[in-house]
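Students often ask what a holo structure prediction actually looks like on paper. The answer is less mysterious than it sounds. You provide the chain, you provide the ligand, and the output is a string of discrete structure tokens encoding the 3D arrangement of the protein together with fe (ii) ion.
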Amino acid sequence: MHFDYFMPVRLIFGRGRLKELSRLHLPGRKALIVITNGKSMRHLGYLDRVAGYLKEQGIEAVVFDRILPNPIETHVMQAAEFARNENCDFVIGLGGGSAIDSAKAIALMVKNPGTYWDYVKGLKKPGEDVLPVIAVPTTAGTGTEADPWTVITNTAVNEKVGFGIKETFPRLAVIDPELMVSVPAKLTAYQGMDAFFHSVEGYLANVAQPLSDMYALDSVRRISTFLPQAVADGSNLQAREEMAWASTQAGMVESISSCISEHSMEHALSAFYPELPHGAGLVALSVPYFSYLLKKNREKVTERYLHIARAMGRQGDNPELFIDALKDLIAAVGLDNLKLSEWGIKKEEAEKLAANSFDAMGFLYKLDPVDLDRADAACVIRDAII
Ligand SMILES: [Fe+2]
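The corresponding structure tokens follow.
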């Protein structure tokens, strides 16, 4: 065994705990609250509640509300300038992964020079001066409340890249499953499957460690049981709570192990097709992807596929059991008819998308349990496009 373990986020987890923002120690006197350009954070009253709790502590807040579902670098730079002009000393990401990831990227850019892409591409090294980030997730899927990763798209170069440093871990995450009951069924399914793949990929990565294994299998177990329930009845608080914890655990898996190339391939799809939800892209890729790994090197993945299959309630010694259980889970959450062609993606683009996945996020291929090259990636992507 040979590993690092670093998980610096204070997690406040439980139903109704959002209100504790009125008395939790917060790292400043003026917050930038980051939300997406959708209406839900205002309609559901979450934005007013957060601002109101801060006010009870005498903390001021200003709001940046332009973030897109697939967030872009331009908005990160605009929000950082806004936070600088407003003298904000910490950033709150309120919403799904796009709001929280953006909050982290904005926190980095308030005091560091240059463009965000300079840091993503390693052209500049950030100083220590990253504003503290508070994460308040209202969806269960990205796990971004428990990891340092930001996923931002640079539209000028069609690249969607994950990036993070130890300073972009949130200081504090308030995970209140009651905030998640209003997520519509289809989004619940997409987001929950994203969490599922964080855990499965982190379990298969060649950098997995004992604690990531523990979190990964436990979250796979919870998602297999409770995601179909949360999709069937969004008001089922137990299912929402189980999914919230499964997603946070999957975020910890991403922090101490890693996603693998399935995520590189998905980022290529949604870099070119920003309307494609991340979870939908992953679901479409998944059966071809995990089947391909098994076909390419059965011996390498068999044992871990069996462990995952067991966590999904399957007994036996055939690694295809995992693929079968995956297909059943996808059907149980109503995503078995998903077609990438509905988003306009064509089979002829497989090579271009495979190349983009290597150019933008090639580092995850190095963590795969089975080596994949560009031709392998093109095969997987071609199979996934129907
Ligand atoms: Fe993801």
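The chain is about 50% helix and 10% strand.
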